[in-house]
Amino acid sequence: MTDGPQPISADALRALRRELAELRTERAAVAVTLRGEDDAVGDRADEADELQRADEVARLDERIARIEERVRGAAGAGAPSTDAVGVGSTVTVRFEDGGESTVHVGELADADDPALVTSDSPLGSALLGRRAGDTVTYRTPGGPMNAVVVSVDA
């Protein structure tokens, strides 16, 4: 995988922006329940609840920052390469049994796209950075499998 910004499909970018808006709304709702410095915390149960809400705000802040970084990086990434597999690539692979399949490498799982493999899945991560003719090995519940990259398209 390259060190620079990774391409992202328009659908995935819309999904990230939608998630970002939802996370910001959720964060605002949780943050408003946190006590200020001058507010006294009651018993231990109140204190535990306060800590749990603070942890939730921190978790939301972390996810928001990661999405914001990805959205910023996607703006300058350009179209997926046809030389090597990256996020956004369409890849035809030939499996050990001789069957071929064309998959789309994406960042976000999409139940409506049965040909999508996420970049962090075993097959998706094995494909990243590979070129036509390369053999990849990836994990399956039945053990390691091999596949050959037949072609890479944007």
Compose a concise summary of this entry:
With 154 residues, this protein is α+β, with helices and mostly antiparallel strands. The chain has three helices and five strands, in the order H-H-E-E-E-H-E-E.
Which radius of gyration do the C-alpha atoms yield?
A: 21 Å
Number of helices: 3
- Count of discrete structural domains: 2
- Mean pLDDT comes to 83
Spatial strand order of the main sheet: 3-2-1-5-4
Distance between the termini: 15 Å
Query: Element order, helices and strands?
Result: HHEEEHEE
Low-confidence runs of at least 5 consecutive residues: none
What amount of the residues lies in strands?
A: 15-25%
Summarize the main sheet: 5 strands, mixed
Count of beta strands = 5
Structural class: alpha+beta
Shape: elongated
For this structure, the quaternary state is: single chain
Q: Percentage of helical residues?
A: 25-40%
Helix-strand layout with pairing:
Blueprint: H1 10-31, H2 44-75, E1 90-95, E2 100-106, E3 116-118, H3 122-127, E4 135-140, E5 143-153
Parallel strand pairs: 2-3
Antiparallel strand pairs: 1-2, 1-5, 4-5
Helix pairs in contact: 1-2
Task: Note down, in words, how this protein is organized.
It is a single chain. The protein is α+β, with helices and mostly antiparallel strands and 154 residues long. The protein folds into two domains: 10-75; 90-153, Chitinase A, domain 3, CATH 3.10.50. The chain is built from three helices and five strands. A hairpin with a 2-residue loop joins β4 and β5 (143-153). α1 runs antiparallel to α2. The longest helix has 32 residues, at 44-75. It is elongated and about 65 Å long. The relative contact order is 0.16. The model has no long low-confidence stretch (mean pLDDT 83).
